[in-house]
Design a protein that fits this description.
The protein is α/β, with parallel strands linked by helices and 458 residues long. It has two domains: 159 residues, Spore Coat Polysaccharide Biosynthesis Protein SpsA, Chain A (Alpha-Beta Complex); 247 residues, Alpha-Beta Complex (Spore Coat Polysaccharide Biosynthesis Protein SpsA, Chain A), CATH 3.90.550.10. The strands form four sheets. Strands 8, 9, 10, 11, 12, 13, 14, 17, 18 and 19 form a ten-stranded mixed sheet that branches. Strands 1, 2, 3, 4 and 5 form a five-stranded mixed sheet that branches. It has a two-stranded antiparallel sheet with strand order 6-7.
C-alpha cells in the first residue's frame, strides 16, 4: 500500500523502484524513499536525501513521510488511519506500524520518488499552515511511548515544529566514571573540571584524571590539591602518549557502569548534560551517546560522526553557526550516527568491555573513537548524538595539531589502517545518504551519487 496525497506527484520510475526493492527484500514490510518539493508551476526544489532507518530521529521528526509503502496485512491489523489524528495521521500510522515489525524489515530506497506539492495552505510550504498537526503528533507520540513501555515526556520544539522526548533516567541511577587524560595545561584542565563540578545537576559521578607526565608546577599543584580534597582521583601514567591505552587503563580502574570519556579542553554549557545523555541508556540497544560541541566562536565542532567524509570520517555540520538547524534539522535533533567523538562520549561499560575498548595497537591517537564507534555498531548496539547536552571545545589546545613529520607519518598510517580495517563501511554510512557528498561536512549534494541503479546492472 503506497501513500500518495491527491495533489502530489510520483516520479515516472517510482513504482518500478518500489517493485525492484520488494523483489530484492521479499520479507520487508515497510519501504520509504527520498523526496523533494514541487511548486505550482512544476519547479522541483529542496531535495530530502534521508537516513536509513533511524529510530531516535523518528521520535522527533517523521522522516519517513513520502514515499511510504506499507504491507497491507499489517495496516489492516492495526486498524489503518485514525481519523482523530488529523495532520499527523501518517506519523501515527507509522509509529503503530513499526511497533509490529523488526527493524530488519524496513528498507530505505535512496532515490527521490516523490514530489511534495507546495501551495500556501499546505504543510509542504509551512508547518504553521496546520498548527493542529503538531498537537496531534504530540498525542500520537505519547501513545507510542505508552504502548512500547517507554517512560518519557513529549514536548514541542516550536522553532522547528518538531518533537522532543525526554526519557526517564535508568534506575537505579548509574554511577558515571568521567575519564579525562591530561598533560600540563592547568588552565584547560581546571576550566573543564570546575565547570563540571560547579554546574552538573546530576551528582552520581566520579572524575578520574589521567596525568600523562605533567611537569608544569602549576598543573602538579592543581592535581595534588584536587586529589587531596577528594574532588577527583589522579591516575599517573608516564608512558609515551597513547590516547587509547590511557583511556583503557583508566576504564579498568573506574567504578561506574557508564564510562564517560572527555577531553581536558572542554567547558560545560548545559547543567543537565548527564541527565540528557544518560537517559538514552534507558532505551534498549543504545551503546554510546555523544554531545553537541561548540568552538569558542559559537560554530559547531561536533554534530555526530559521518564515516567516509574526507576518506575516513568527519563531523556532521562542522562550522555551522549556532542557531542553524542544519540539513533538515539534523543538527538540532537527536538521532543515530555511525559514531560520536571521544572528546565527550558516554559508553555502557558492558559494551566497552565486550569489544575490548579502544585499539591501543593500531590507533594510538587518531580515529580511535571512530573505530570504537564502528565496533559498537558492529556488535549490535546503536549510537545516539544529542544536541541537548552541550560543551565548548577548545579543540587541540592541549596537544596541538598534526604538523610535525612524525605526527603526519603516524596520522597517515592510521588512515591506512582504518581503510584496511573497515573497507566499504567507510563509504556506506547508513545514517548518511549516498546522494550526499563525501568531500565536505555540510550535507551538500554528492556527484556522482553513490546509488545502485537497477537499470545499470551488468
Amino acid at each position: 500500500m503506497a501513500l500518495l496525497d491527491h495533489d502530489d506527484e510520483l516520479t515516472p520510475h517510482a513504482l518500478a523502484m518500489v517493485v525492484d526493492s520488494i523483489n530484492s527484500n521479499p520479507a520487508a514490510d515497510l519501504f520509504y524513499s527520498d523526496e523533494d518539493k514541487i511548486s505550482v508551476d512544476g519547479t522541483r526544489f529542496n531535495p530530502y536525501f534521508k537516513s536509513d532507518w533511524n529510530p531516535e530521529l523518528l521520535l522527533s521528526h517523521n522522516f519517513v513521510c513520502h514515499l511510504g509503502v506499507y504491507r497491507r496485512e499489517i495496516v489492516n491489523r492495526i486498524g489503518g488511519f485514525r481519523k482523530d489524528f488529523v495532520g499527523a495521521q501518517d506519523w501515527d500510522l507509522l509509529l503503530r506500524f513499526v511497533e509490529q515489525i523488526p527493524e530488519s524489515n524496513i528498507v530505505h530506497i535512496p532515490m527521490i520518488l516523490y514530489h511534495w506539492r507546495t501551495v500556501p495552505e499546505s504543510t509542504a510550504s509551512s508547518s504553521a499552515a496546520k498548527p493542529y498537526a503538531l498537537v496531534n503528533a504530540i498525542r500520537a507520540m505519547r501513545e507510542h511511548l505508552e504502548r512500547t513501555g517507554i517512560n518519557g515526556e513529549v514536548t514541542e520544539v516550536p522553532e522547528f515544529s518538531m518533537l522532543r522526548v525526554r526519557y526517564e533516567l535508568p534506575q537505579p541511577s548509574p554511577l558515571v566514571s568521567i575519564i579525562i587524560p591530561t598533560r600540563d595545561r592547568r588552565d584547560l584542565l581546571e576550566r573543564c573540571i570546575e565547570s563540571i563540578l560547579s554546574k552538573s545537576s546530576y551528582r552520581n559521578f566520579e572524575i578520574l584524571v589521567i596525568d600523562n607526565g605533567s611537569s608544569d608546577p602549576a598543573t602538579l599543584e592543581y592535581l595534588n590539591t584536587g586529589e587531596k580534597e577528594k574532588r577527583f582521583q589522579v591516575l599517573r601514567d608516564n608512558r609515551p602518549f597513547n590516547f587509547s591505552r590511557l583511556n583503557n587503563s583508566a576504564a579498568a580502574q573506574a567504578k561506574g557502569s557508564i564510562l564517560g570519556f572527555l577531553n581536558n579542553d572542554l567547558e560545560l554549557i548545559t547543567p543537565d548534560w548527564l541527565e540528557e545523555m544518560l537517559s538514552y541508556f534507558s532505551r534498549e540497544g543504545v551503546g554510546a551517546v555523544g554531545a553537541r560541541l561548540w568552538y569558542p566562536n559559537d560554530t559547531l565542532q561536533h554534530g555526530g560522526i559521518t564515516v567516509g567524509i574526507g576518506g575516513v570520517a568527519g563531523h556532521a555540520h562542522k562550522c555551522f553557526a549556532k542557531g542553524d538547524p542544519g540539513y533538515f534539522n539534523r543538527a538540532a535533533l537527536p538521532g543515530c550516527f555511525s559514531g560520536v567523538t571521544a572528546a565527550c562520549m558516554l559508553v555502557r561499560r558492558q559494551v566497552f568491555e565486550k569489544i575490548k575498548g579502544f585499539d591501543e595497537e593500531n590507533l594510538t591517537i587518531a580515529f580511535n573513537d571512530v573505530d570504537l564507534s564502528l565496533r559498537i555498531c558492529e556488535a549490535g548496539s546503536r549510537i545516539v548524538w544529542t544536541p541537548y547536552a552541550e560543551f565548548y571545545h577548545y579543540e587541540s589546545a592541549s596537544r596541538g595539531y598534526e604538523t610535525t613529520p612524525e605526527k603526519t607519518a603516524r596520522f597517515e598510517k592510521e588512515i591506512v589502517y582504518m581503510m584496511q580495517r573497515w573497507g566499504d563501511r567507510l563509504t556506506n554510512d547508513p545514517y548518511y545518504n549516498p546522494n550526499l557528498t563525501l568531500l565536505t561536512e555540510d550535507y551538500g549534494l554528492g556527484f556522482p551519487p553513490r546509488v545502485r541503479k537497477p537499470w545499470a546492472r551488468s
